[in-house]
Amino acid sequence: MAGMSPSLTRRSFLRASTGAAAWAALSCGPAGPPGPGPGTRLTGYHYDPIYLEHDPGEGHPERAERLLAIDDRLRAADWYPSLALLAGRSAEVSELELVHDPRYVGLARAEILAGASRLSTGDTDVSPLSYEVALRAVGGVLAAVDAVVEGRVKNAFCALRPPGHHATRDRGMGFCIFNQVAIAARYAQARHGIGRVLIADWDVHHGNGTQDIFYADGSVFYMSTHQFPFYPGTGSTGETGEGAGAGLTMNRPFPAGAGDSEVVGAFRDLLPAARRFAPDLTLVSAGFDSRVDDLLGGFRVTDQGYREMTRIMLEIASAAGEGRLVSVLEGGYNLEGLASGAFAHVDELIGA
Question: Which of 23-37, 167-181, 232-246, 276-290 has the lowest mean pLDDT?
Answer without folding.
Answer: 23-37
